[in-house]
Structure formats: structure tokens, C-alpha cells
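User: Hey, quick favor. My workstation is busy. Could you predict this chain's structure for me?
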Amino acid sequence: MTHPDYRFVDMGEQQLVVLVDGEGRLEMHTGKVCTMRAADLLEKLAARLRASHPPFRCLPSAAAVPTAERPDELLLAEGGRLDRTASVWTDGRGHVWDLSLTWVDTMGAEWRWYGSLDSNGAPLLRANNGATVQALDVVRALYGPLAPVTEGAA
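Assistant: No problem, here it is.
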């Protein structure tokens, strides 16, 4: 299968081609370029990738992350109910959230409830070791969908 955004590679035009399949297997074609030059190019690429990575860990592969069972509609903080004993919050539309779980967003940040609600009654979550605090409805709208972190997830 070909991707419409990519054309076939002409090795006469390219110094280095690296292919990685869905299982992480690597195939590299250096053509006539010196392997030390290829190594230098790959080190520069690695430095760029590390510099552009967000300050939190990567999400596990899509197959490893359970899809959150939440409809696309917005959460309603108004009318929400908190069962503090069970650490469960039910929003105004009836969606139930287990606040004892850690939730991961699409960027890989982990969000945890720390026991407080915002002025609208939505649970306040912390991410990035407490540096970021947002209401659950805001986190979901900006960074969702959210998925619970399960045992063994990387």
C-alpha cells in the first residue's frame, strides 16, 4: 500500500532512506553515501527528535491504550455529583468518571484528581507532576479523548 503524501524514492536523489514497519523493524538504504556520514545524519535527526519531544512520556501504541468509553458530546460540570467515598464523579449528562484512576490524554500526559472541584463543580486534575491544573471538562475538551491508565501500560 502506498501513502498519497509520499512518492517513490529515487536513490539517485537521496543519500539515506530509513524505513520502519509497524513492528519497529528497521530497513536502511545508504546508497553510495559513507556510512560515517549516514551515522552523523542520524545523530542529528535523533537530536532534533529529542528536542521536539514533549516533557512527558509517549503514549503506548494505539492497540495498547483502551479507548475511553465517552461520547463526543461535551461534559456538563453543572449538575455534576461527586461521591467522594467512591472517588466517582457523575457529570450533568450522566457520564461517570472514576477519579481513582489516572487518565492519559492524546499527548501522553497523565492526569490525576487530587480531591478538589472547580467553581462549576468539575473535578480538578493535575498533570506534569502538579505543574498543570485543569478541570476535567477542560482537559477532555483540549486534550481528549482521555483513556484510563491500565497496569502494564508504558
